[in-house]
Design goal:
Order of helices and strands: EEEEHEEEHHHEEH
Oligomer: single chain
Helix content: 25-40%
Number of strands: 9
Distance between the termini: 35 Å
Largest sheet: 7 strands, mixed
Radius of gyration: 20 Å
Organism: Cellvibrio fontiphilus
Pfam family, one: NUDIX
Structural class: alpha+beta
Protein name: NUDIX domain-containing protein
């Protein structure tokens, strides 16, 4: 969370100095998970306020009295990172008494899973820098942001195992190896190739494209599509997606 020279942003400076339109005890934090070359990363901004200068944080800040929570999340994300046009889902409210120094601040976390290469990052005026950082090699984070990230990862990994949200990160036509690499990156574990393929094919959610990869230096693999209509129909019949 950047300094308070920009209305709507957060710092350890006393909240009395903030704009009158700011809810002084309520903030937003955004967890944007991005898949980048088979590695799961998270979007972070570097602090500019003197007490935390050089440290990293989740992109977030203060909520205005005249805006909805989700609107605040989108506004802050775009102001700090340049990222827009994605769907944010509310994750959890974090309200530990000592989570913010010298103040009582409750934060509402939103999250999304995206392809990192689809977004151009632009650090806002109140952010020294913005970048994708590996979830497995996080820098020191301010406040309780490490705790928030850990909870977000837990929720995300559970969600991708029980809902086919990971398919949104793949091209329209993909190989089974690409699909397995995606799940291995998000779950941070090595999956048994025969078992994974057997489980995926048994779900009957993939439609063969009757095509193979082109221009690859190895044996060309078959291409598939995710069948969203089949998933919808199966779900209505009580089907449970599970990796």
């Amino acid at each position: 969370m950047p300094n308070n020279h920009i209305p709507g942003s957060l710092s350890t400076t006393h909240s009395a100095h903030l704009d009158d339109n700011i809810i002084k005890a309520l903030s937003i934090d955004n967890l944007i998970f991005g898949l980048d070359n088979d590695e799961l990363k998270i979007l972070l901004v570097k602090q500019t306020d003197p007490l935390h200068q050089g440290k990293w944080a989740l992109p977030g800040g203060w909520i205005r009295y005249d805006e909805n929570l989700r609107d605040a999340a989108y506004r802050l994300l775009e102001e700090l990172t340049g990222v827009r046009d994605l769907f944010l889902e509310q994750l959890k409210t974090f309200g530990r008494v000592d989570r913010f120094p010298n103040e009582r601040v409750v934060t509402i976390a939103y999250y999304a899973l995206v392809s990192a290469d689809k977004f151009s990052l632009v650090a806002g005026q109140s952010a020294a820098d913005v970048s994708w950082q590996s979830v497995n090699k996080l820098p020191e984070l301010v406040y309780d942001h490490a705790e928030i990230v850990a909870h977000g990862l837990k929720v995300l990994r559970h969600q991708v195992c029980h809902q086919p949200i990971g398919f949104n990160l793949l091209p329209e036509k993909f190989t089974l190896l690409q699909l397995q690499a995606l799940y291995e990156a998000i779950l941070n574990t090595k999956l048994d190739k025969p078992n994974f393929r057997r489980k995926i094919m048994k779900m009957n959610l993939l439609s063969p494209c009757n095509e193979k990869q082109q221009g690859v230096p190895h044996r060309a693999a078959s291409l598939y599509r995710f069948d969203a209509e089949a998933y919808k129909h199966l779900s209505e019949s009580g089907f449970a997606f599970e990796i």
